[in-house]
Each structure stands twice: as C-alpha cells, then as structure tokens.
Design a protein that fits this description.
- Keywords: Magnesium, Metal-binding.
- By secondary structure, this protein is of the alpha/beta class.
- It has one domain (3-168): Glucose Oxidase, domain 1 (3-Layer(bba) Sandwich), CATH 3.50.30.
- The protein has seven helices and 13 strands.
- Strands 1, 2, 3, 4, 5, 7, 9, 12 and 13 form a nine-stranded mixed beta sheet that branches. Strands 6-8 form a two-stranded parallel ribbon.
- The protein is elongated, with a radius of gyration of 19 Å.
- The protein starts with a helix and ends in an 8-residue tail after the last helix.
C-alpha cells in the first residue's frame, strides 16, 4: 500500500491530531458524497475565476496518483470542472480534486466515483483563455500548499502534510490509531472513558 493510501486509511481526524506538521485547510470544503476520500501528492493549480484553461493544462500535466489542488480565487460564481474533465482525470489516474471554487455535474461525478471536494455547485460556464499557473505555491484557507505536499481529504476535513514530513506524519498517525484501537477494546471490556483516560468524576473529558 502506498504512503498516500496509508494516510487516507487513517483519515484526516487521526492525522490532524497526531502529526504536528499536518495543517488543516480552514475552508468549508465538502465532498460531493459523504464516502468520498482522496489522498496523494498535490499538483497545484492557480486558475483565474471564470476561466478553466489552467485546469485542462493541469490534467494533461498530472502524474498518476496526483490530487489537483485548485486556487480558483475563492469564486463560486462559475463551474469550471464537470463530467468530461472528471473522466479525463480518471483515465490519467488522478486521485481527486480539491478546489476553493464550484463544480458542475455533481450527480454524474458521484456516479463516476471521482473524489471532488469543493465549496459549491454552479452550472455557469467558463472561458478557456488564461494559462494560469501549474505547480507553483498556492494558499488555500490560510495554508500554503506546494507541489508534492501530501493531501488527505475526507468528509471531516482537507489536510496538508509537507512532503518532507510525510513519513513522520504516517508513523504518528499509525501510533494514534493503534492507541485508539486499544481504548475501544477497553470500552468493550466494560471500562469507562474516565477510567481509560485516567480522569476523575467531574473533570472535563
């Protein structure tokens, strides 16, 4: 199993709490369907609002396993990504899309199973004139994202792990997951969370 897949299996809540280097993107991203999840190295895209040429360029440039992370200027006034582009992504092995903009064709994207995390839905079309920027640093929700940083996205959050810290974040996440598994065994054996955590009655858990 790849490093990205192992991070995805842990989930954002576990990694976000366990790994000091993990950064939570402070934007209201939501998956198109609750079970959607994506993880992989970021291919960063800066796209001018109202124009999706940069997205077409990014899909052509992406490596298998990449997650497209799109700075759309926070605009939700148009839908630069839909069914056709999702199919193009799937055929190139792209792992998902995270955008601070909107998308279209939501029902078809859900049927296709292509993971999309966006701020909204909008069917308004776009032009294809602005080259944008592929692979440069972007900032989403106060978090700087560089090409190759590990993205983990699920129903709880979108988090970013710097590429240099990915192995450390994985180890910390797996350690926390193992600890939580032991706690759940204790709960099933009849202990309370107060007992497991060494708390006393009246203390905040």
């Amino acid at each position: 199993m790849s490093l990205a897949a192992r991070l995805a299996a842990l989930g954002t809540a576990t990694i976000g709490e366990a790994a000091p280097s993990a950064r939570i993107v402070a934007l209201p991203f939501r998956p198109l369907a609750p079970a959607m999840a994506a993880a992989g190295p970021a291919l960063t895209v800066r796209c001018r609002p109202g124009d999706n040429l940069a997205l077409h360029r990014a899909i052509a440039a992406a490596e298998p396993g990449d997650v497209l992370v799109v700075d759309y200027g926070g605009s939700t006034e148009s839908g630069p990504f839909g069914e056709i582009m999702a199919l193009a992504c799937q055929l190139r092995g792209i792992a998902g899309l995270v955008t601070d903009g909107s998308v279209r064709d939501s029902a078809r994207l859900i049927e296709m199973g292509f993971p999309v995390f966006a701020r909204g839905l909008n069917i308004r079309g776009t032009t294809k004139l602005d080259q944008g920027e592929i692979g440069g640093p972007i900032t989403l929700g106060g978090v700087r994202i560089d090409r190759g940083d590990l993205i983990v996205a699920d129903a709880d959050a979108v988090i970013v792990v710097p590429a240099a810290d990915a192995e450390e974040a994985l180890a910390a996440g797996e350690a926390r997951s193992a600890k939580e598994a032991r706690m759940m065994e204790c709960l099933r054996a009849g202990e309370t969370t107060l007992q497991i955590l060494g708390l006393t009655e009246g203390e905040e858990p």
